[in-house]
Inverse folding.
């Protein structure tokens, strides 16, 4: 009997020490994202707010007041809002018919068109700016609006079309049997059913246009500035940090407001919809009118999305291969040949990807665990991880500039600062891809593994980690593309020896002369190909839709 | 030998198991039968260690398993709907338990292949589990649970998701496999045919408690309670009394031997539809309210003073027709009131 009790005690102690180990692993997994985001996100944002509101140790609303009353800056704020609103309205208006033809009509090449339509969304902003410069329409509101439509068309087509393609068509047929014509059916039946997707798409597009930086900087010329470009101008050209900080505070508040409206609208989409398999609702266009409608939309896509890319690539080859050859020679404003920026970008993108996967992956695991055990702290971690998604790249860059420039964290000259900024921007995407996959793991798989003799840590390795691996690959592709194309944050913290490819393109575009412009086109083409390649890898892996974004 | 004593499990305020006692001897196959929500699956999960009991004891060969983690119990559990690992192929699923035992690679591979062959799936090694049919998935799940040679195999609705014909074939295959391997097994189902085809002993559960335990034929022909009787198809239950001479009820006098243990007083008499017959001179009268075709007979519903009764008939009377009903006393059972 005695040895029996000893055995029981020993196994209890073993179980307890294992629980302590599991607990410390869990804490470490939460600590990684929390510490990273606290140091590289909350601290810089706090520094911005500090500079903007308490510049000399005491609350001082003068800079904020002068920003809000200065007619020039008020004009900038107003322009920021209305260009974003107009861009959103136009994008949604053009995107809805596009979503319809790509989700409801069956025609040859549909899958290819759907893939191609997505390409502009993943293109770096600087490439989009360069492409529209190649069309020769810089310095106009029209160019900005067109570029924003180009950029965000895919958001509407994917979000709205994603729902439309699975929407039960029988209520529409019922409305028609009850005597509604096609327009009345669309307005009365289809549009309300699509409303959640339209609101979601519109709020994302508005946020992207509101915080658009590269496009405005390249295409707006000296006449058109938004809060984002103004923060950069005040910082880099006028060296007026108090005003820049005050502007950043205004921008931060506006973005947070837009985000809350967006999540409020998303929270309301609870209407149970009858969803069908996509194959049940697509039909070939039968009538002449339907074929004309399809042709018109495909034509619009070709013109709107295809033309700028085509012109960009053609222009880069206009002087033969000279523009590409010139990239290997140092020019004015460059320490090395611009081609060096390609290697710099690839190196930074690799580091940023690893960082984003480590931090974002840990955050996703911690969030899945917190949601599973229904811990109330989950929403806090949720908010902390997702906030960088809404906050603009310029805020990140500006925050790094003013916060990480003095001990204990002086990273001004550290080559790590750029990949860290990129990782910070990529982390929310990594979490958004990985979290739904982790949450969809059937808890019985873990129990099945335990019943087959796997200890808790082994269960985690054999089930959670294995299933997350594919999602992690997709997330890595995203993170790599985001880092390659990142421009806004980089511009604040870049140094001549750390010039990335987007920054190099920006500098080339700013240099006078047709030869420099051709080089900018060549560099943009290279960046476009690199980004497309990393995203194509994602699309190949994405057999079933992984995650959401 | 598995011993379960006074096991009690609660989910919040809901009592899932309320003082369950059960033993499973070595090489014995025990089936827990009951409607959904009766606590069958909880019994398996608590035995597996996946649920913590509030009170009571689960022990194996006298060793208390409290504090022994699921992965150390050497029990196998085949989940309802199988819970196969979607990210592994067939052999990867089957080999999992052997790998956890840290055996040599060759041994793991050979063991997994042997387990697959045992369930008739040799050649399926590298198929993806999502591409398998329901029956094939069920076999893979069985091979996966059997491969590490668990000292107790538990199965949760092993044939539940399959269609009828496949279910019947696999049930007899399972029985053959259990016998040839000498498996000690505890499984749960809501399907009587499955339970009676597979089990050495049948346990009937009702809302967290055990209603009856016995050999299949004993339980089938002599349910101990009205709940067990109704669950096993004794649809016709009427009031009766027992005295020294016999059992008296609306069916007329029944032999005293039907209620050997009862000393007297109020009881219930239960009969399956096929123990009743349409009989113009029968003691119970009523009118037909409907009938349903059941392959080799019609199930006729008759409204009587005793309540609705069900009788099996070769040709159905018309709805509304007045009929008489008689009982075959040898097929009736007497239950406590």
């Amino acid at each position: 009997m005695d040895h029996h009790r000893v055995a029981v005690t020993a196994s209890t102690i073993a179980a307890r020490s294992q629980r302590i180990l599991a607990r410390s692993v869990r804490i470490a997994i939460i600590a990684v994202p929390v510490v990273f985001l606290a140091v590289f996100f909350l601290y810089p944002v706090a520094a911005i707010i500090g500079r903007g509101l308490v510049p000399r140790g005491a609350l001082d609303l003068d800079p904020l007041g002068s920003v809000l009353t200065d007619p020039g800056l008020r004009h900038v704020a107003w322009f920021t809002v209305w260009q974003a609103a107009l861009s959103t309205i136009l994008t949604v208006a053009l995107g809805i018919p596009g979503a319809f033809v790509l989700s409801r009509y069956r025609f040859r090449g549909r899958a290819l068109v759907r893939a191609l339509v997505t390409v502009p969304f993943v293109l770096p902003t600087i490439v989009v700016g360069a492409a529209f410069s190649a069309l020769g329409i810089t310095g106009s509101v029209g160019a900005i609006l067109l570029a924003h439509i180009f950029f965000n068309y895919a958001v509407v087509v994917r979000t709205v079309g994603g729902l439309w393609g699975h929407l039960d068509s029988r209520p529409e047929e019922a409305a028609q049997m009850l005597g509604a014509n096609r327009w009345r059916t669309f307005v009365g039946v289809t549009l309300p059913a699509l409303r959640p997707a339209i609101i979601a798409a519109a709020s994302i597009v508005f946020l992207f246009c509101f915080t658009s930086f590269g496009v405005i900087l390249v295409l707006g010329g000296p006449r058109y500035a938004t809060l984002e470009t103004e923060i950069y101008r005040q910082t880099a050209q006028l060296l007026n940090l108090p005003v820049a900080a005050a502007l950043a505070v205004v921008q931060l508040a506006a973005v947070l407001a837009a985000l809350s409206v967006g999540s409020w609208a998303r929270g309301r989409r609870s209407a149970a919809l009858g969803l069908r398999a996509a194959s049940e609702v697509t039909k070939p266009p039968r009538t002449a009118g339907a074929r004309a409608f399809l042709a018109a939309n495909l034509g619009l896509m070709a013109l709107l999305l295809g033309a700028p890319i085509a012109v960009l690539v053609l222009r880069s080859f206009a002087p033969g291969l000279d523009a590409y050859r010139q990239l290997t020679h140092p020019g004015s404003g460059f320490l090395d040949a611009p081609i060096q920026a390609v290697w710099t970008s690839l190196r930074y993108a690799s580091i940023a990807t690893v960082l984003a996967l480590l931090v974002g992956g840990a955050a996703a695991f911690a969030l899945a665990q917190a949601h599973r055990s229904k811990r109330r702290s989950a929403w806090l971690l949720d908010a902390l991880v997702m906030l960088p998604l809404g906050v603009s790249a310029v805020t990140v860059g500006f925050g790094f500039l003013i916060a990480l420039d003095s001990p204990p964290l002086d990273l001004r000259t550290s080559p790590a600062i750029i990949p860290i900024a990129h990782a910070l921007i990529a982390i929310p995407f990594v979490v958004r891809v990985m979290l739904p996959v982790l949450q969809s793991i059937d808890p019985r798989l873990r129990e099945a593994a335990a019943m087959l003799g796997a200890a808790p840590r082994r269960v985690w390795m054999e089930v959670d980690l294995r299933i997350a691996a594919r999602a992690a690959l997709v997330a890595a592709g995203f993170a790599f593309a985001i880092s390659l194309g990142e421009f806004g944050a980089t511009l604040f913290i870049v140094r001549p020896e750390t010039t990335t490819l987007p920054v190099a393109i920006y500098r080339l575009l700013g240099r006078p002369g047709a030869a420099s412009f051709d080089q900018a086109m060549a560099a943009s083409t290279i960046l476009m190909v690199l980004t497309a390649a990393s995203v194509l890898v994602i699309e190949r892996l994405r057999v079933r839709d992984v995650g959401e974004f | 030998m598995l011993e379960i004593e006074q096991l009690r499990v609660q989910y919040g305020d809901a009592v899932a198991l309320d003082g369950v006692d059960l033993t499973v001897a070595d090489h014995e196959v025990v089936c827990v039968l009951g409607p959904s929500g009766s606590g069958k699956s909880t019994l398996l999960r608590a035995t597996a260690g996946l649920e913590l009991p509030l009170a009571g004891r689960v022990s194996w060969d006298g060793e208390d398993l409290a504090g022994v983690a699921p992965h150390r119990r050497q029990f196998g559990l085949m989940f309802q709907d199988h819970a196969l690992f979607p990210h592994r192929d067939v052999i990867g699923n089957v080999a999992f338990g052997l790998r956890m035992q840290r055996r040599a690679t060759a041994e793991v591979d050979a063991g997994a292949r042997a387990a697959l062959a045992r369930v008739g799936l040799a050649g399926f090694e590298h198929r993806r589990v999502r591409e398998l049919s329901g029956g094939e998935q069920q076999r893979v799940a069985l091979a996966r649970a059997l491969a590490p040679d668990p000292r107790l195999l538990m199965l949760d609705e092993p044939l539940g998701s399959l269609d009828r014909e496949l279910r019947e074939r696999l049930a007899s295959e399972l029985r053959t496999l259990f016998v040839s391997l000498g498996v000690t097994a505890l499984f749960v189902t809501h399907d009587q045919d499955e339970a009676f085809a597979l089990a050495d002993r049948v346990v009937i559960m009702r809302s967290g408690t055990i209603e009856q335990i016995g050999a299949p034929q004993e339980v089938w022909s002599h349910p101990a309670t009205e709940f067990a009787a109704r669950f096993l198809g004794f649809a016709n239950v009427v009031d009766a009394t027992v005295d020294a001479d016999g059992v008296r009820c609306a069916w007329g006098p029944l032999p005293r031997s039907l209620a050997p243990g009862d000393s007297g007083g109020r009881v219930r008499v239960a009969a399956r539809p096929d123990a009743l017959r349409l009989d113009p001179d029968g003691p119970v009268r009523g009118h037909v309210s409907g009938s349903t075709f059941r392959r080799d007979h019609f199930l006729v519903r008759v409204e009587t003073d005793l309540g609705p009764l069900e009788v099996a008939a070769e040709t159905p009377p018309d709805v509304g027709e007045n009929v008489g009903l008689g009982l075959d006393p040898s097929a009736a059972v007497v239950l406590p009131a």
About this structure: Chain B touches chain A through 27 residues (CB under 8 Å). Residues 164-181 of chain B form the longest helix (18 residues).
